[in-house]
Amino acid sequence: MWPLMSSDADALLAEIEAWSDPAACSYGELGTIVLNHPGFVPLLRKRGTLKADTAGKLRAFMRHFPDVERLPADLRRSMVAQGRTGRTWSPENHQSTMLRLGHPELRDPPAAPRPAPTGDKPRINAAVIRAAKLDGRDLPIFVTALIDMGLECWRDDRAAHGEAVA
User: Fold this and answer.
1) pLDDT tens-digit map of 6-29
2) Which of 5, 51, 123, 140 is 20 to 30 Å from 115 by CA-CA measure?
3) CA of 44: how far to CAs of 5, 24, 31, 58, 114, in Å?
4) Do 58 and 48 contact (CB within 8 A), yes or no?
Protein backbone atom coordinates (compact mmCIF):
# COMPACT_ATOMS: atom_id res chain seq x y z
CA MET A 1 0.00 0.00 0.00
CA TRP A 2 1.51 3.30 -1.11
CA PRO A 3 1.43 6.17 1.36
CA LEU A 4 -0.83 9.15 0.72
CA MET A 5 1.10 12.33 0.18
CA SER A 6 1.09 15.68 1.93
CA SER A 7 -2.18 17.14 0.60
CA ASP A 8 -4.10 14.04 1.70
CA ALA A 9 -2.36 14.08 5.07
CA ASP A 10 -3.17 17.78 5.45
CA ALA A 11 -6.82 17.09 4.63
CA LEU A 12 -6.96 14.33 7.26
CA LEU A 13 -5.27 16.56 9.83
CA ALA A 14 -7.90 19.24 9.19
CA GLU A 15 -10.66 16.64 9.63
CA ILE A 16 -9.09 15.36 12.87
CA GLU A 17 -8.76 18.89 14.26
CA ALA A 18 -12.35 19.75 13.32
CA TRP A 19 -13.59 16.53 14.95
CA SER A 20 -11.41 16.50 18.10
CA ASP A 21 -12.39 19.87 19.53
CA PRO A 22 -16.17 19.37 19.70
CA ALA A 23 -15.76 15.70 20.66
CA ALA A 24 -13.49 16.68 23.59
CA CYS A 25 -11.16 13.88 22.55
CA SER A 26 -7.42 14.47 22.50
CA TYR A 27 -5.26 13.48 19.56
CA GLY A 28 -3.54 10.91 21.76
CA GLU A 29 -6.87 9.35 22.73
CA LEU A 30 -7.97 9.20 19.10
CA GLY A 31 -4.69 7.57 18.06
CA THR A 32 -4.90 5.05 20.91
CA ILE A 33 -8.54 4.11 20.28
CA VAL A 34 -8.23 3.62 16.53
CA LEU A 35 -4.57 2.72 15.95
CA ASN A 36 -3.02 1.89 19.36
CA HIS A 37 -0.62 4.74 18.56
CA PRO A 38 -1.07 7.81 20.81
CA GLY A 39 1.61 9.75 18.91
CA PHE A 40 0.01 9.25 15.51
CA VAL A 41 -1.23 12.84 14.95
CA PRO A 42 2.08 14.53 15.84
CA LEU A 43 3.88 12.00 13.65
CA LEU A 44 1.48 12.69 10.81
CA ARG A 45 2.18 16.43 11.15
CA LYS A 46 5.92 15.74 11.09
CA ARG A 47 6.04 13.26 8.19
CA GLY A 48 3.09 14.43 6.12
CA THR A 49 2.34 10.92 4.80
CA LEU A 50 0.06 8.07 5.78
CA LYS A 51 -1.42 4.90 4.32
CA ALA A 52 -4.85 4.95 2.75
CA ASP A 53 -6.19 2.21 5.06
CA THR A 54 -5.07 4.20 8.12
CA ALA A 55 -6.85 7.30 6.82
CA GLY A 56 -9.94 5.22 6.07
CA LYS A 57 -10.02 3.75 9.56
CA LEU A 58 -9.72 7.17 11.22
CA ARG A 59 -12.40 8.66 8.97
CA ALA A 60 -14.73 5.72 9.66
CA PHE A 61 -14.31 6.23 13.40
CA MET A 62 -15.07 9.95 13.14
CA ARG A 63 -18.16 9.14 11.03
CA HIS A 64 -19.42 6.71 13.69
CA PHE A 65 -18.96 9.35 16.40
CA PRO A 66 -19.70 12.69 14.72
CA ASP A 67 -20.30 14.67 17.92
CA VAL A 68 -19.69 14.68 21.66
CA GLU A 69 -23.04 13.02 22.42
CA ARG A 70 -22.04 10.02 20.31
CA LEU A 71 -18.73 9.62 22.20
CA PRO A 72 -19.55 9.91 25.92
CA ALA A 73 -16.62 10.33 28.33
CA ASP A 74 -17.06 6.89 29.93
CA LEU A 75 -17.10 5.23 26.52
CA ARG A 76 -14.03 7.20 25.42
CA ARG A 77 -12.13 6.08 28.56
CA SER A 78 -13.16 2.44 27.99
CA MET A 79 -12.11 2.58 24.34
CA VAL A 80 -8.72 4.14 25.23
CA ALA A 81 -8.11 1.37 27.77
CA GLN A 82 -9.12 -1.23 25.21
CA GLY A 83 -6.85 0.36 22.58
CA ARG A 84 -3.89 0.17 24.95
CA THR A 85 -4.37 -3.59 25.16
CA GLY A 86 -4.14 -3.86 21.37
CA ARG A 87 -7.90 -4.24 20.78
CA THR A 88 -8.37 -1.11 18.70
CA TRP A 89 -11.69 0.04 17.29
CA SER A 90 -12.50 -1.01 13.76
CA PRO A 91 -15.53 -0.47 11.54
CA GLU A 92 -15.95 -4.24 11.22
CA ASN A 93 -16.18 -4.69 15.00
CA HIS A 94 -18.13 -1.52 15.82
CA GLN A 95 -21.35 -3.30 16.80
CA SER A 96 -19.75 -5.86 19.11
CA THR A 97 -17.48 -3.20 20.66
CA MET A 98 -20.45 -0.97 21.51
CA LEU A 99 -22.34 -3.89 23.04
CA ARG A 100 -19.31 -5.10 25.01
CA LEU A 101 -18.58 -1.61 26.39
CA GLY A 102 -22.19 -1.15 27.50
CA HIS A 103 -23.45 1.22 24.81
CA PRO A 104 -25.87 -0.85 22.71
CA GLU A 105 -27.66 2.34 21.66
CA LEU A 106 -24.57 3.34 19.62
CA ARG A 107 -24.42 0.25 17.46
CA ASP A 108 -25.10 0.68 13.77
CA PRO A 109 -28.73 0.98 12.77
CA PRO A 110 -30.19 -2.18 11.25
CA ALA A 111 -29.43 -2.56 7.58
CA ALA A 112 -32.21 -2.06 5.08
CA PRO A 113 -33.93 -5.33 4.26
CA ARG A 114 -32.47 -7.12 1.28
CA PRO A 115 -34.72 -7.99 -1.60
CA ALA A 116 -36.08 -11.52 -1.43
CA PRO A 117 -34.04 -14.08 -3.34
CA THR A 118 -35.45 -15.13 -6.67
CA GLY A 119 -35.72 -18.80 -5.65
CA ASP A 120 -37.09 -20.34 -2.50
CA LYS A 121 -33.60 -21.07 -1.09
CA PRO A 122 -31.44 -18.55 0.82
CA ARG A 123 -28.19 -17.47 -0.81
CA ILE A 124 -25.20 -19.22 0.76
CA ASN A 125 -21.69 -17.80 0.55
CA ALA A 126 -19.39 -19.77 -1.78
CA ALA A 127 -16.78 -20.03 1.00
CA VAL A 128 -19.32 -21.85 3.18
CA ILE A 129 -20.07 -24.32 0.37
CA ARG A 130 -16.34 -24.96 -0.16
CA ALA A 131 -15.82 -25.43 3.59
CA ALA A 132 -18.69 -27.95 3.72
CA LYS A 133 -17.08 -29.92 0.91
CA LEU A 134 -13.73 -29.89 2.72
CA ASP A 135 -15.43 -30.96 5.93
CA GLY A 136 -17.26 -33.82 4.19
CA ARG A 137 -20.69 -33.13 5.69
CA ASP A 138 -23.88 -32.37 3.81
CA LEU A 139 -24.42 -28.63 3.43
CA PRO A 140 -27.49 -28.31 5.73
CA ILE A 141 -25.75 -30.30 8.49
CA PHE A 142 -22.54 -28.29 8.08
CA VAL A 143 -24.39 -24.93 8.17
CA THR A 144 -26.27 -25.96 11.31
CA ALA A 145 -22.98 -26.97 12.97
CA LEU A 146 -21.41 -23.67 11.88
CA ILE A 147 -24.28 -21.71 13.42
CA ASP A 148 -23.96 -23.71 16.65
CA MET A 149 -20.20 -23.02 16.79
CA GLY A 150 -20.75 -19.32 16.15
CA LEU A 151 -23.37 -19.13 18.87
CA GLU A 152 -21.05 -20.90 21.31
CA CYS A 153 -18.24 -18.42 20.52
CA TRP A 154 -20.65 -15.53 21.01
CA ARG A 155 -21.73 -16.91 24.39
CA ASP A 156 -18.11 -17.46 25.46
CA ASP A 157 -17.21 -13.88 24.49
CA ARG A 158 -20.13 -12.43 26.44
CA ALA A 159 -19.39 -14.62 29.48
CA ALA A 160 -15.71 -13.60 29.36
CA HIS A 161 -16.78 -9.94 29.55
CA GLY A 162 -19.26 -10.55 32.37
CA GLU A 163 -22.33 -10.00 30.23
CA ALA A 164 -25.60 -11.91 30.28
CA VAL A 165 -25.70 -14.90 27.98
CA ALA A 166 -29.44 -15.67 28.07
Assistant:
1) 678 889 999 998 888 777 788 888
2) 140
3) 11, 20, 11, 12, 40
4) no
